[in-house]
TrEMBL record:
Composition bias type Low complexity, residue spans: 333-364
Alphabetical list of Pfam families matching this protein: FAM91_N
Residue ranges of domain FAM91 N-terminal in the record: 14-318
Protein name: FAM91 N-terminal domain-containing protein
Superkingdom assignment: Eukaryota
PANTHER family recorded: PROTEIN FAM91A1
Record field: transmembrane: none
Chain residue ranges for the region called Disordered: 318-364
InterPro entries tied to this protein: FAM91 (IPR039199), FAM91_N_dom (IPR028091)
Length: 364
């Protein structure tokens, strides 16, 4: 056990194979080490260029394996890796979740086996929720013999295009690597938009809170953006900085499905941090202070907060605004704000909050 933990820490801290102690190298060949590095970096959702994975495999091989693993585990789309996954590989959230849905249908899994935040984002992107999934599964099984011999028919029943996506004015627009043939098919207005989005951002024009050097959504026509987004020609970044504060309104669209178990390697590392964010956030705290309180890296918290905002579970506060939001348990229990202290509903909320805190402790 101590040996395995040592190897894990060595990979996380970026220690090269040649710097490992001789007894460790005698037990672990360089090829085995590279395999361990690739597996752990994928499990942790690390970027290839910022981790030890760059010494273990090529960038293309790494992200292909990461996407296959994420889809098999039904994790949330890796938005934090969009610069390669979306821009280079051209795997959009819609394409990603279509594959997750297919794999889940193919194995005839219950909808409850889809992790909570994956289910919420899948509904946002594809329009497939619990009822729609059950209808899809019933439609597949209704084909009887054909379904038993060819699970691929499930693909024909999936949505053909993504839903319109919510775009906040301050979100950043990024352009993928557009091919020459694709560019020729654009309208003059679409081509102009892509050219403008690729231009450098003028100095001083971006928000002080922004960490993404890109033009905001507010700079472009909303209809053109939706069309380009659905065709996978642009993607969106949700910039969050250390001095940003967020508010957590009553949760809508939260799906209570699969419960994570401690030690499960398929658990998205963002999941426990999202629960921690929901439990500990205060509109008075900026991200830097909140990271200190939670004892996590600021970089990780910024990514998690960005995801929470994208999913609609949080909103960024403008400078100078104030207001205190209810706790996480209250957000999951609409209509409880007028209850007398100590009432049955409040006791249920406290129990739920304790359960969620225990889940965070178990996973972390």
């Amino acid at each position: 056990m101590a040996y395995e933990e040592y190897v894990r820490k060595a990979i996380i801290t970026g220690r090269p194979y040649d710097d490992l102690p001789e007894p460790v190298r005698q037990r672990l060949t360089q090829n085995e080490w590279r395999g361990r590095v690739r597996e752990l970096c994928i499990q942790r959702g690390e970027a290839w260029g910022g981790s030890l994975a760059r010494s273990a495999c090529s960038e293309q091989d790494y992200y292909e394996q990461l996407l296959a693993t994420y889809q098999a585990w039904a994790r949330v789309y890796p938005y934090h890796l969009s610069d390669y996954v979306c821009r280079v590989v051209r795997v959009t959230p819609f394409r990603y979740y279509s594959e997750v849905l297919f794999l889940t249908l193919k194995e005839e899994k219950s909808y409850d086996r889809i992790p909570n935040f994956t289910a919420a984002d899948m509904l946002r992107v594809t329009g497939i929720g619990r009822n729609e999934y059950i209808a899809l599964m019933n439609a597949c099984k209704a084909k009887r013999l054909l379904w038993r011999v060819n699970k691929g028919i499930a693909r024909d029943l999936l949505p053909a295009a993504p839903l319109d996506v919510k775009m906040e004015p301050w979100w950043a627009v990024q352009v993928v690597n557009v091919g020459e043939a694709e560019f020729r098919e654009l309208t003059p207005a679409e081509a102009q938009l892509l050219r403008q989005a690729c231009e450098p951002v003028p100095a001083g024009s971006s928000s002080s809170s922004s960490i993404v050097a890109a033009h905001p959504v507010s700079s472009f026509d909303a209809g053109l953006l939706q069309g380009l987004y659905k065709r996978g020609l642009i993607y969106l970044e949700v910039p969050v900085a250390a001095d940003d504060r967020i508010s957590l309104p009553p949760l809508e669209g939260f799906v209570s499905n699969k419960t994570s178990e401690a030690g499960d390697e398929s658990v998205d590392p963002f999941e426990p941090l999202l629960y921690s964010l929901f439990l500990a956030n205060s509109s008075r705290l900026d991200q830097a202070r909140l990271a200190d309180i939670l004892g996590v890296e600021l970089r990780q918290l910024l990514l998690v907060t960005s995801l929470a905002i994208r999913l609609g579970f949080a909103s960024k506060l403008s400078p100078g605004s104030s207001g205190e939001e209810p706790g996480f348990a209250s957000k999951l229990s609409p209509g409880s704000s007028g209850e007398e202290p100590g009432g049955p509903q409040q006791q249920q909320q406290q129990q739920l909050q304790q359960q969620q805190q225990q889940q965070v402790n178990d996973v972390m």
